[in-house]
Design a protein that fits this description.
Blueprint (H helix, E strand, L loop, with lengths): L12 H64 L7 E3 L2 E3 L15 H18 L2 H6 E9 L6 H20 L10 H10 E6 L8 H4 L2 E7 L25
Parallel strand pairs: 3-4
Antiparallel strand pairs: 1-2, 2-5, 3-5
Length: 239
């Protein structure tokens, strides 16, 4: 058989050439979609990371502001030996102990409260105080003697006694001025603890503490609903 008479294999080039561009385009499309997905995920992760980082920076700045505020309060109360600022609590220590089963304070203790608290109010009016201070919780404590409910009521009465002392108007010695008494009504909140946070001795447990609470990030300040002073300075505990 001659060379020219050999049968040639069927030519399929045109069909392959017609199909090849479609599959190449589909593959490129899938690759492009995958790249686009990876880019979108990367951008989303970067945005989330940036948001977390910004939140952490704000939290750190808040803690630094509060630390500076408490340092100012320490300096403001440094003139009163026995009154200590620990963390976010002002502890009056031996300077404001209660007698057993009593909610009364003596004249020197009244005077101490009316002298120290205006220093706290001055810090509250500081720009950092206006920015972060939420309230001041007056905590009266009782020792472990007596029933739980009796001591719970007694500790609340001790907290109330502190507010009675602070809101007393003239002629009470060193009475707070009207602006300070209005701010006390706005910021101060009464609380009490019966067998909680006992100290080593019953005498140490019968104490007063002022606990400062601060706004969280994004938390709005509670509305000021305090009413004008009504001129009735009588303490309900004495009626």
């Amino acid at each position: 058989m001659s060379l020219g008479s050999k049968r040639q294999p069927p030519r399929r080039g045109r069909r392959d050439e017609a199909e090849r561009p479609f599959w190449i385009s589909f593959s490129d499309l899938m690759t492009a979609l995958m790249v686009l997905f990876l880019v979108a995920m990367t951008v989303a992760l970067l945005a989330i990371t940036h948001e977390i980082s910004a939140t952490e920076d704000l939290k750190e700045a808040r803690e630094e502001d509060i630390t500076r505020l408490m340092d100012s309060l320490k300096a403001a109360t440094a003139d009163f030996p026995g009154v200590a600022v620990r963390g976010r609590v002002v502890d009056f220590g031996d300077r404001a102990r209660f007698e057993s089963d009593s909610h009364r304070l003596n004249a020197s203790q009244d005077l101490l409260l009316r002298t120290v608290v205006p220093r706290i109010l001055a810090v509250a009016r500081d720009p950092l105080g206006e920015k972060w201070l939420k309230r001041v919780v007056v905590e009266g404590f009782a020792d472990a003697r007596g029933s739980y409910l009796h001591n719970l009521n007694l500790s609340l009465q001790r907290s109330e006694r502190v507010l009675c002392v602070l809101l007393a108007g003239p002629p009470a010695p060193a009475a707070l001025d009207e602006a300070d008494r209005l701010l006390v009504r706005q910021l101060f909140l009464v609380s009490g603890s019966s067998f909680n946070a006992l100290k080593e001795s019953p005498e140490e447990s019968r104490r007063i503490e002022l606990r400062l609470e601060f706004l969280e990030l994004g938390e709005g300040r509670p509305p000021n609903r305090s009413q004008p002073l009504d001129g009735d300075f009588r303490c309900p505990l004495d009626l």
